[in-house]
Amino acid sequence: MGVAAATGGCLCGKIRYRSRLPYRYAVHCHCSMCRRSSGAAFMTWVCFPRESFSFTNEQPAVRRTSAEVHRAHCPDCGAQIYMDYQDSSTIDVSIGTLDAADAIQALDNIWVSARLPLLKGFDSDLPQHDGFSPRT
């Protein structure tokens, strides 16, 4: 999967993080909440073991966006850093914040019934799920 340790941060550099362990999996999420929170057509989340993830300088601003989800972003540049489901064993990091994002390979498309029409056929070689990935 990933390298032994992963690092990343926001656009302005105020927020930096590290994972001591490789990522478990990565998914393309097509749900409307991810679209609205990011302003993008979909979000690619890279899922790291919760116990291995830490911030190395400033803490992000964290907001509850649903009953089960917190999302974190840089209070200065606004970059979305992670999404955290309260009962999950992973922290789901926005792929664009990783220093070595080009080393990541997504394994699933999730919430495909909400996918925008312009993305029909996108990564169709990956498993398609109308809900969470079975890897969670």
Automatic annotation (TrEMBL):
This is GFA family protein. Residues 6-108 form the CENP-V/GFA domain. It comes from Mesorhizobium sp. WSM2240. It comes from the Bacteria. GO terms for molecular function: carbon-sulfur lyase activity; metal ion binding. InterPro entries: CENP-V/GFA, Mss4-like_sf. Belongs to the Gfa family. Keywords: Lyase, Metal-binding, Zinc.
